[in-house]
Amino acid sequence: MAKEVTNKQENYSQWYNDLVVKADLAENSAVRGCMVIKPYGYAIWEKMHDQLDRMFKETGHVNAYFPLFIPKSFFSKEASHVEGFAKECAVVTHYRLKNSSDGKGIVVDDDARLEEELIVRPTSETIIWNTYKGWIQSYRDLPILVNQWANVVRWEMRTRLFLRTAEFLWQEGHTAHATEAEAIAETEQMINVYAEFAEKYMAMPVIKGRKTANERFAGALDTYSIEAMMQDGKALQSGTSHFLGQNFAKAFDVKFATREGNLDYVWATSWGVSTRLMGALIMAHSDDNGLVLPPRLAPTHVVIVPIYRNPEQLPLLAEKILPLKKELEARGLAVKFDDRDTVKPGFKFAEHELKGIPVRIAMGPRDMENGTVEIARRDTLEKKTCPMNEAVEKVVALMEEIQDHIYNKALEFRKANTHTTDSYREFQEILDKGGFIMAHWDGTSETEERIKEETKATIRCIPFDTPEEEGKCILTGNPSKRRVLFARAY
Amino acid sequence: MAKEVTNKQENYSQWYNDLVVKADLAENSAVRGCMVIKPYGYAIWEKMHDQLDRMFKETGHVNAYFPLFIPKSFFSKEASHVEGFAKECAVVTHYRLKNSSDGKGIVVDDDARLEEELIVRPTSETIIWNTYKGWIQSYRDLPILVNQWANVVRWEMRTRLFLRTAEFLWQEGHTAHATEAEAIAETEQMINVYAEFAEKYMAMPVIKGRKTANERFAGALDTYSIEAMMQDGKALQSGTSHFLGQNFAKAFDVKFATREGNLDYVWATSWGVSTRLMGALIMAHSDDNGLVLPPRLAPTHVVIVPIYRNPEQLPLLAEKILPLKKELEARGLAVKFDDRDTVKPGFKFAEHELKGIPVRIAMGPRDMENGTVEIARRDTLEKKTCPMNEAVEKVVALMEEIQDHIYNKALEFRKANTHTTDSYREFQEILDKGGFIMAHWDGTSETEERIKEETKATIRCIPFDTPEEEGKCILTGNPSKRRVLFARAY
């Protein structure tokens, strides 16, 4: 194979990076920490975008667009928000360049210094709530259910393609409500939307739960998250939904006349997922041959490869293949006929596997004689000969089968690598092998931090669906009422 | 009417601004020169985005994403490009803030100064060609047909919503080719795509042509544009497509092995349209009652308003209206049933007219008795009573009729306000009234600049479809071989 991928067991981190780069998903740019999302990677992101956008609209949301820049002073208005976000960020201080005096280049023009510095948005709560102040006077103006698709910048020191980059693409929902209950219901609805997207489209099982106070979004009263297990047993936080209470309404003085004629501060939520999901998708399913994409997010569902010895055979094969391609397309599938004559079939097979195309159909002279094709699944690498006239139904059915199989495989993997323990020593052993741990915790930030220092594990969430259970904290032995989810995380 | 719009004849500029703000399309933000695109404005932009994106993909392009930031030194590499773009721009100089020593706010951390300043992209040729260097080795890697949807920033001193803002949304295509002829064909193809979009979807007739050297994109060998006439007779450049020659390939040293085994620099094009199209759409068709939207870009095609005296009548009307709504939706139309009981029908009518919804259906008790509805067109403001059982077909047909009528009206207007003259005095008189002028020009930049100084008119383009014609320059009397298009412009 031309582009060899590092073995996953040997070096998981290098395996991931190889996949991203060699499958043409993304690469590092000339700008520190910023990535270039290449066409194939962007095509997958577009599929995610389109499906999420549909789900947001089905739940009553509309899109809008707010400025890239935020005045520095806005960040000081919400005390905990500034601690969380305003520190590591890109700061615009000038608005003009000029020719340097030696004539050899351009320099910043000191006469063009901004009166107030502008921050490239790391998240948009402040600029949006400053805007909502003008939109909301009465309960009749509520709810506001707005989402934004945008780029944001957080000056990360250690970056990894998709997982942690200085600039990334995301969506951020920002809603405004008349009551606390309605805002909480929205926060719950959106974490459910994210979970449904992760499971049904990304084929990635997730655990929904509440973050501890330590891990909450800066400025939120409550943060819900979905957590997925990667193939090294580590957790990847894949989406968050925040109940912001009246914090931002108070910071930006956004009050409304209630139905009863009083004045009250508006209730808020915000929620987001980002191109980080690309990292999750890659790490959840792929293998040493390359990407494994769930059909619902694959830009190409089927690739058809003609096998021939001499060039005269190609048109004869094409005569059979093109109608098949058309029929598959009529069933809603994206199909590619790979008739390149510059590379051999083996090279093509490896390339299509690297790129995670769910189904490959091969057809050679023998197949033509027998009226068959060879159908190969990317997920299991199984190959089967199939009568030509059954191929369309077979491939259509395979899309659902593959989607389900990838999901179930990931779910089985998570089950096999999720442990319940009451021993701190075992806790540490499990972490070193990789996996999720359900363990008791005494509910204090101090304990949470000590466990993090000693084991590098964090409380990923307090899952919504774990039952109450009396127990003793894994570290301190103090009483606990329910197990929480511990793991090392990306 | 609740939200009165300034009369167009009285104050065209205020009329435009009123429409943008009162129809809830956009508003100025707290950040100088940056706008907030409100949900209704964004919904129209999404329709533009989706249609353009389809057209780009049909012509073989794929999307990708490149960094927001560009190292300052990149701009110095293409000499004319830096003059055109790098001067008025947002400059990132620091990457961290810290608490101020008085504890009262946050300040820029001087220890976190960037080694090299980063420019927020005003356009992406430099960062993209620096990236293409890694993608292109041989003719087999060509062509590259990439488009990017992104935000860009140009530090404009005088801004106007949609027409000229510091930050705006756009798409920028950047293609790479093995031959000059192929790059020129691409440049032509894309100006044709833009013209088709403007005419078929925006219902806005445009003139295609070549820019003069003075008006070329900074770094291009040739710039094509589409120019549209606004209702004040001024021109609005609505899209540009640039043949960049080998300029950027030379600046970033992007060479490829040709089929013949030589090394050559790669040929380039770039092309873009922006949220400026929103301004063009508004100004091309709207009237004193508000927006007039072409059906193909209207987020809502039909609004249905029930007319009733007492609340008991509403459910009876709804019983008739909801099946009608469903039938219209089954025909692919976006339909809104405006059953708000907090405002009167007259208020609703005015609001729907302000927002440019192409068709309004009203139904009252009398209509129920007679089995009719009232159908009103937004473009002509005509109202007609129509049998209920013919309503669906009527409305579906109206969509095409309105789309065509808006286009034809704009075309008639442009014809009526386009003049041919050989007298410089008449030239100036026409400009003062507003309109396009086809006049002779001697082909020199000096003449072009003098005309601009004296009349504020620029050469919008040298139209592709004007015949050769011997004549004398309108200013200097020097010989000229063809008329060019002059106008004052946005």
Task: Give a description of the structure.
The structure is a homodimer. With about 500 residues, chain A is an alpha+beta fold. Chain A contains 14 helices and 26 strands. The first copy, chain A, has helices at about 10-20, 40-60, 70-75, 80-85, 125-135, 180-200, 245-250, 275-285, 315-330, 345-355, 365-370, 390-415, 425-435, 445-455, and strands spanning about 25-30, 35, 60-65, 70, 90-100, 105-110, 115-120, 145-155, 165-175, 205-210, 220-230, 235-245, 255, 265, 265-275, 300-305, 335, 360-365, 370-375, 385, 420, 435-440, 460-465, 470, 480, 485. An eleven-stranded mixed sheet of chain A has the order 3-8-9-15-12-11-10-23-26-22-21, with helices on both faces. Chain A has a five-stranded mixed sheet with strand order 17-16-18-19-20, with helices on both faces. In chain A, helix 9 links the parallel strand 16 and strand 17. In chain A, helix 2 (about 40-60) packs across helix 6 (about 180-200). Chain A is globular. The model of chain A has no long low-confidence stretch (mean pLDDT about 95). At the A-B interface, strand 2, helix 2, strand 3, strand 4 and helix 3 of A face strand 2, helix 2, strand 3, strand 4 and helix 3 of B. Strand 5 (about 90-100) of chain A pairs antiparallel with strand 5 (about 90-100) of chain B, so a sheet runs across the interface.
Computed over alpha carbons, the radius of gyration of chain A is: 26 Å
Mean pLDDT of chain A: 96
Work out the strand percent of chain A.
25-35%
Give the helix proportion of chain A (percent range): 25-40%
Number of domains of chain A: 3
- Multimeric organization: homodimer
Please work out how many helical segments of chain A DSSP would assign. Answer: 14
As laid out across the biggest beta sheet of chain A, the strand order is 3-8-9-15-12-11-10-23-26-22-21
| CATH homologous superfamily title of the largest domain in chain A | Bira Bifunctional Protein, Domain 2
Low-confidence stretches of chain A: none
Overall geometry of chain A comes to: globular
End-to-end CA span of chain A: 30 Å
CATH architecture of the largest domain in chain A: 2-Layer Sandwich
Instruction: Specify the CATH class of the largest domain in chain A.
Output: Alpha Beta
- The CATH topology of the largest domain in chain A, please? BirA Bifunctional Protein, domain 2
Number of strands of chain A: 26
| Largest interface, chains and sizes | A-B, 63 and 63 residues
